[in-house]
Design a protein that fits this description.
Blueprint lengths: L6 H14 L10 E5 L7 E5 L4 E6 H6 L2 H21 L6 H10 L15 E2 L2 E2 L2 E2 L3 E2 L3
Parallel strand pairs: 1-3
Antiparallel strand pairs: 2-3, 4-7, 5-6
Helix pairs in contact: 3-4
Length: about 140
């Protein structure tokens, strides 16, 4: 059932899905969080020199369909893999190679809540960058 009914259900789904992604990332060492404050980014991956955290936006989980949200998870997993293997992450050649292989965009899709003045555009069924609506 999509979207998940709770933050715990979303995290359980994300962890389980992450284990199925063909990327040599140590998913057991990742911290996972749900953000209810995110307004644009569907996901984020941070590294503080010790822990790697993948933060997923609750609003994006509610707005995106399962396939769109799985692309967000794959995108953030690539960053986690980069942190684990190279100690840094970005959207350079190493990232783009994995993004192509895993069928994700180089930028994590944005989302918004209803009435925010932002909209999600899609290209070939995939979310892309967003921009404010112009009056």
């Amino acid at each position: 059932m999509w979207p998940p009914g709770s933050h715990d259900a979303l995290l359980e789904y994300a962890r389980s899905y992450a284990d199925s992604v063909p990327l040599p990332v140590d998913t057991d060492s990742l911290d996972w969080e749900v953000s209810t404050r995110a307004k644009q980014r569907a996901g984020a991956c941070t590294y503080d020199g010790d822990a790697i955290t993948i933060r997923l936006a609750w609003g994006a989980a509610k707005r995106f369909d399962r396939a769109q949200f799985e692309r967000v998870i794959r995108h953030e997993l690539i960053h986690a893999w980069e942190y684990q293997t190279a100690g840094e992450a970005g959207h350079g050649a190493r990232f783009r190679e994995q993004a192509d292989r895993l069928d994700v965009s180089v930028t994590c899709p944005a989302f918004t809540t209803r009435g925010s003045g932002w909209s999600v555009r899609t290209a070939r069924g995939r979310p892309t960058d967003t921009a404010p609506r112009r009056s």
